Predict the 3D structure of the following.
Amino acid sequence: MKLILVITQAIYLISIVLWLPIWGLSFMSFDNGIALWNSLFVLIIGIYPLVVITCSIAAWLQYRKSQNRRAVIINLIPLLWILSLLSLILL
């Protein structure tokens, strides 16, 4: 279980490096004016690092309490952002 946590968090570290230009480009959604959907789009992309940090800390705390399954589930939550971005790119 520890190996799974370390590997996924290494993937998250790489994805945060790739997140920065995507976050910068997300502000282009305001080119047609400010709307609720544009703001939500930028907010969802912008909170990704906070979710990664929060879930990583929570996963390690659960791992320390010997709740390995819960730790892995918590650690996979940021993967939703990665999978949704990949699905947008591939479609």
In short: Residues 2-90 form one domain. The mean pLDDT is 92. Residues 2-26 form the longest helix (25 residues). Residues 29 and 38 are 6 Å apart (CA to CA).
